[in-house]
Structures are given as C-alpha cells and as structure tokens.
Design brief:
The chain starts with 11 loop residues before the first strand and ends with a helix. The protein folds into four domains: 182 residues, no CATH class; 77 residues, PGBD-like superfamily/PGBD (Muramoyl-pentapeptide Carboxypeptidase, domain 1); 144 residues, L,D-transpeptidase catalytic domain-like; 59 residues, no CATH class. The protein is globular. A hairpin with a 3-residue loop joins strand 1 and strand 2. Helix 3 packs antiparallel against helix 4 and helix 9 runs antiparallel to helix 13. The strands form five sheets. It has an eight-stranded mixed barrel. A four-stranded antiparallel β-sheet has the order 10-13-11-12. A two-stranded antiparallel sheet has the order 1-2. It has 18 helices and 20 strands. The protein is of the alpha+beta class. Helix content is 39%, strand content 16%.
C-alpha cells in the first residue's frame, strides 16, 4: 500500500485561519499530545497506541526529549513524505527474512488513512492525538525494526548456552535522528543491517527462492532408482528439469537427448552435491535424492533462519581472520576480504558440539602436551583403563595425582581403577607429545571460556568423510602447518622452514603471535559462497530447529 500526502489545500487550514499559522498551531498540539503520552509511567507500565503495544518504552522518551517532543515524521508543514517512506521501508522487511507485521505496519496504514481523511475533509475537529499516535508508532517501528536489523530478533544466548558471539552495539537513536532529519530511510536501515557481503548474497538468494515459489517451485523426483552417467530414462529427464529450476543446469545449453545422463548433467549433479554438502560423485542415490526433494518452502525457511544468524555476527570480523563454519566442516583464512586458504575440519559430535564464539588467537604450541579434559577422561578413557591398564602406556598418557601445577605422577598400576567413576575422579591425565598425541604436532590457542581450540590430529582418515562431526568440541584442522604459516606470516623468526625444523625437533615450544588473529567459530546451514552460489548444509546440531521455535513463539 502506498499513500501520497501532498499537504493541505491552499488557502485555509480547516477553513479557520491562514494555513501557516494553523499548521504551527496544530504541530504544537501534536507536540503536546506526544508529551502527554510519554509523561506517564512508561518505565513500569506498557505504552499502547491504537491497540498496538509499543516496545521501545525506554528509548521513545529519549528520542522525543532530545527534540522537545516535536514529531519526527510529520514536518512543520504537516507533510508526511517521511512517514510514507518509513511505512514503505517497513513493508519491505520481508527482504530481510523479517515480517512487516511485526512492526505495526497495519496500524501505521490505518492511521495514515485516518489522517488523510481528516485533511481531505478539512474538519475543525481534527485530532492531534491521532497524529501523535501515528508519529509514536512510526518511531517505535523504526527502533524495533532497526534493532532487529542490527542484532537479530532473538538473543542467541537465551537460545544456546554455547553461543557467545555478538554483533556489537549500534546507536539506534543517532540512526533515528539521521533518518528523521534527512528523510533517507533506506540509507539509515542500510547502515544498520550487516555489511558483510555474505549477508547481501543471502538476501538475494531469498528473493530468488521466493521467485521459484511463485513459479510453483521444483518437481519432486521418484527415488526408486539410482541414476548414473550413461543412463537413459524418463527419470533422467525429470532430474534434468529439477536441476534447471535450481540453476544447476544451464537451460540454454545443448540438449540433444534430454533423457540421456550425459557429461553435462553429471557435472550439474556434482555442482548440486557440492553446494549441498554431499559426496561429489555425480551419482544420484539416496542422499542426493533427499536433498533434491527438499522443498523450496523449506529452503526459504532455512535462508530466513540463517539471515537471522547473519545479524548475530560481529560487525567487524577483522582485516585478517580465521572463520570456521562447523555446519560446513570447513575453515577459511581471510585477509583483506580475500580467502587465502581453505581446509577441511573435524568438529564436535552432536553430544559434544562445538560452540559459537569469537576470540583472538594469541599463540600456538608445537609438540604440545595434552591435559585430557575431565569429561573425556571419565567418559572415554576410564572405561578403556578399567579393561586394560596398559592402555595408558600405549597412548603415552601419564597419571598425575590432581590438577595442581606441581602434582606428582602416579603409577597407574597402583590405582584401583574400578573404584573410580564420573563423580569420583581426582586424577589429571596428561598425554606426552608424540605420534599418538590427540593434539597432533600443533595447537592454536585463542583463550575462551569453552577451552575449545584448533589443533592437528593423528587421525587423518576422518578428513575423507563427508560429514565430519567426530571430535569432543575442539576443531581438528586438515593442514595445521599451512594454517600456522598463515598466522605467523610476517614474523621473520618463523619462516616456513624454521617452523618445520622446530616441529621435527620434537620439543614443546610456545610461539607467541606478533599480531593476534581473530577466530570466529560459526554455525551457518545456508549461505552464499564467494561466487554467489547458494550453499545448504544439514542441521547437525538441531540449531535450526531451536531457532525456528524461538522465532515462532517470540513476536518481538
């Protein structure tokens, strides 16, 4: 809905006095009505306008007090262009994966219509309270929508205890003042939404998927038969049409035999598999069929959820940083907005999922000792020791009496291991450096409350798996030496050959970074890659489910 208000008819205002004097007088009455509205006990009582509960009860008084309660969206001539622009901007909230109805849109349009009706009839009984309500609801809508753009609708820490990542504070009142003074509403909201290119790409993906919905989405495929290159059947034709709709096949390409599974179609299947986190083999089996038959509606919802997560990210990731997407089992090292390296990672299993947070990497340790976390000690290692005490020696694990710095070593053969359990386990288990050390040859340290880090691993075969959620929370990296060279770049003491030599010496050494490197551990099940291709991943930790529930039950 778009309403255009061009001001009152020339001559008289309400047919009583010259227009300018009447406008001045009416603005003063609107000003008084706004002040009366906000002079109540807004700190403890809800503020309601036209049946709409206003959410910014703490910020609204500040917003108007700074301008002596003059309206923000109604100018001195009683024109409403700024009000219309704000209403139209809120009407486009769906582009962000947000709901315009959450921001008083219906009430705003009703009030605009009522105000226009009063102005057109030039009645002397026009209500300044109605105009004041319009201005207050518009301001509340701006503050609420702006806060959701800047930081999301849901506070992730109330949803996940292991989610400690924040976008940082924004000055909503300054943004409000700029929008109201300039009338450039889109620019104000543009500065509040995340500036990351990935967020913009995901918004574009949402628009494309909604376009597919309007065109009835993509066809559902029959999953009875595995399809391979060289096959010819009507099922191959169905597959081709499905991949054309999702953009994996160029519809303008050669198509001599649409029922034949040719090399072009095999390439398209591999492209689809890659962007859906599947085994890339060009064969359409059970898992690939499963992803192909996820509906457009479900994909739209997945994008909406991840746009919300995008609003939770730090606004400044750093000029040089490391990002791990645990849902993708992948690490990227970025410098000046360019991906310098990528590698596979192994992340926490669902029972010990990797957390989400940002921290600064400050040092790394080569040939590290491993002080076994208590949970792993009692749940994983103790049962093995109770079966065979020699397990400790085979794994290079020593037993220390407690967690004190100078705790004495204990001969494991003297311990009655059957007497110990999860509620009674005073020992510290420490694994020596070496080929069996769970941390491998390098651990990358970025102090955090979860004691989660990046590290090498002796178990290299796991990197060949498609789904790599096998760790106890820490992140195992595929190419630790390559990553170490990235974080140590520019440090003349630690050129690649010097690092390799130090590792081969076998001694435990701590290397402090001359410049800390931000590390961001994320969880994104949908995003657009650097080429703009939409990527989807399985929700291994059920975080999508939890966020869906939170967004559904929490209007604001």
């Amino acid at each position: 809905m778009c309403l255009l208000f061009t001001g009152f008819l020339a001559g008289t205002f309400f047919g009583i006095e010259p227009e300018a004097r009447a406008a001045d007088s009416f603005i003063e009455r609107i000003q008084a009505a706004i002040k009366a509205r906000l002079d109540g006990d807004t700190a403890t009582k809800p503020l309601v306008c036209q049946g709409e509960m206003l959410c910014g009860i703490r910020m609204l008084p500040l917003a108007y007090r700074n301008r002596n309660h003059l309206p923000l969206w109604i100018d001195a001539s009683l024109r409403l262009e700024k009000a219309e622009a704000l209403a139209e901007a809120i009407g486009r909230a769906g582009e962000e994966g947000l709901a315009p109805s959450d921001y008083h849109l219906e009430a705003i349009y009703d009030l605009l219509a009522a105000v226009y009706e009063q102005s057109s009839t030039k009645t002397a009984s026009a209500s300044p309270e109605l105009w004041a309500d319009l201005d207050l609801i518009l301001t509340d809508a701006f503050l609420l929508y702006g806060s959701h753009l800047a930081a999301g609708r849901v506070n992730p820490e109330t949803l996940h205890t292991d989610w400690k990542i924040h976008p940082g504070a924004v000055d909503l009142l300054t943004a409000l003042d700029n929008a109201a003074s300039t009338g450039n509403i889109d620019a104000a909201f543009g500065k509040l939404r995340p500036a990351h290119s990935e967020y913009a790409a995901l918004r574009n993906a949402l628009a494309r998927l909604r376009g597919l919905t309007a065109a009835n989405g993509w066809p559902v495929l029959d999953v009875r038969k595995t399809l391979r290159p060289g096959d010819r059947s009507s099922a191959v034709g169905d597959l081709r049409r499905r991949l054309v709709v999702s953009g994996d096949v160029d519809p303008t390409g050669p198509d001599d035999d649409p029922l034949f599974f040719d090399a072009t179609l095999a390439s398209a299947v591999k492209h689809f598999q890659q962007r859906n986190g599947l085994k890339v083999d060009g064969i359409v089996g059970h898992d690939t069929y499963g992803m192909l038959n996820v509906s457009v509606k479900q994909r739209i919802r997945q994008v909406v959820l991840n746009l919300e997560r995008g609003r939770w990210l730090p606004r400044n990731l750093g000029a040089r940083y490391i990002m791990v997407n645990t849902a993708d089992f992948n690490l990227k090292a970025v410098e000046n907005n360019q991906i310098e390296l990528q590698m596979r990672v192994v992340v926490g299993q669902p029972a010990r999922r990797s957390p989400v947070f940002s921290a600064n990497m400050t040092y790394l340790v080569i040939n590290p000792y491993w002080n076994v976390p208590r949970t792993i000690a009692v749940e994983d290692i103790l049962p093995e020791v109770q079966k065979d005490v020699a397990y400790l020696a085979r794994q290079g694990i020593r037993v220390l009496q407690n967690w004190e710095v100078d705790a004495p070593e204990v001969d494991p053969a003297t311990v009655d291991w059957q007497a110990y359990h999860a509620d009674r386990f005073p020992f510290r288990l420490r694994q020596d450096p070496g080929p069996y050390n769970a941390l491998g040859r390098i651990i990358f340290m970025f102090p955090n409350q979860f004691a989660v880090y990046l590290h090498d691993t002796p178990n290299r075969s796991l990197f060949n798996r498609v789904q790599r959620d096998f760790s106890s929370g820490c992140i195992r990296v595929e190419a630790p030496v390559v990553l170490a060279n990235f974080v140590l770049a520019g440090d003349e003491r630690w050129r690649p050959d010097a690092l390799t030599e130090a590792i081969e010496e076998g001694e435990t050494r701590t290397i402090w970074l001359s410049h800390p490197v931000p590390v961001h551990l994320l969880y994104m099940t949908a995003w657009a890659d650097e080429t703009g291709v939409i990527q989807f991943r399985s929700d291994i930790y059920n975080r999508d489910r939890d966020l869906e529930r939170a967004l559904t039950r929490s209007r604001f």
